[in-house]
Amino acid sequence: MMIPHKINSPLGSNDLSLLVDNEQWELAIQQSNNNRHLAEAWSSRPGFFEGIKTSDVLPIHIACARRPTVEVIDALHEASRMGLRQKESAYQRIPLQIACRSDASPDVVRRLLEYYPEGAAVDDNLGRLAIHYRLSNGADDETIGALLKACPGSARAFDRRGWLPLHVAASVGASPRVIQSLVEAHPEAVLLATIKGSTPRRCLNMAPHSPNKAANTDFLLRMELEEQSKLGRKAAKPSRGSVRAVV
After folding, report:
1. Distance of alpha carbon 197 from the chain centroid
2. What is the Cα–Cα distance from 61 to 39, expressed in whole angstroms?
3. Are both 34 and 1 inside the same structural domain?
4. How many Å apart are CA 50 and CA 66, to the nearest integer?
5. Within 13 Å and on the Cβ side, how many CA atoms surround 39?
6. Mean pLDDT value across the chain
7. How far apart are CA 191 and CA 10, in angstroms?
8. Angle at CA 220, nearest 5°, toward 214 and 226?
9. What CATH number is attached to the domain comprising 203?
10. pLDDT of 42-85, one tens digit each?
11. Bigger pLDDT: 245 or 108?
């Protein structure tokens, strides 16, 4: 079910949106509890992405871009049970993707997954899932584990540039634990290249000073040899349908 997309104010000036935008969390919770309809009020936000991209958003989208508290997420979800499923207009991202992109706390990401676990399998118009964004904005073991638990198939999701989560993890010098968990979820990923021809092991060179580079290089090289031996053929790019395994 979609929340009717009617812009109530071109600048998003309803009280709840302003309180959330200014990170006045306690007042935002009170307003959400007292005026629940405001949680379903769309507003147009100039510069919402990259400081230049305008997007039509709900208060929950704004909150997730501002590193909210768990209590704010609870209040906004209680006011609008469908809010977490709604996509903003610029990149078609749901709140979970925005939270992961904005380095929200692990507790907040877990709560978003608790309310809407299927969100871990939703892609935006760049083909990216929440896990892509968390890997490029923090890549902490705890949150990546929660996203993989919600949707193991997300390890198989490639974006419009052919980047799997493993490519992203390697490019930012993620921990060996993260790298290993992604390989466990999709072993063939070690052999797959991006559209520009970069394998995960080559992507490690994008984070040359990472303290994890040596360990990740050894692990990926070993896994490449194992997978090549096991497959006896060229690794196949996964289908998009294989991503949607939410547990």
Report:
1. 24
2. 10
3. yes
4. 14
5. 25
6. 92
7. 48
8. 140
9. 1.25.40.20
10. 999 999 998 899 999 999 999 999 999 999 999 999 999 999 99
11. 108
- Reading the block at residue 111, the tokens are 């709560």
Question: What would the mean pLDDT of 195-216 be, rounded to a whole number?
Answer: 97
**Residue 86 near residue 92 (C-beta atoms within 8 A):** no
Q: Which of 155, 153, 173 is nearest to 164 (CA)?
A: 155
Domain final position from 125, 151, 166? 125
- DSSP strands (E only) in the chain: 7-9, 42-49, 53-57
List the structure tokens of 218: 């050894």
Rounded distance between C-alpha atoms, residue 181 and residue 163, angstroms:
17
Q: Is residue 134 part of a domain?
A: no
Q: Which residues pair with 57 in a beta bridge?
A: 43
Reduced to 3 DSSP states, what percent helix, strand and coil does the chain have, rounded to the nearest 5? 55, 5, 40
Distance, in Å, from the CA atom of 212 to the CA atom of 139, rounded to the nearest integer, reads 13
Name beta bridge partners: 46.
none
Question: 158: how many CB neighbours lie within 10 A of its CB?
Answer: 24
State both tokens at 40.
């379903």
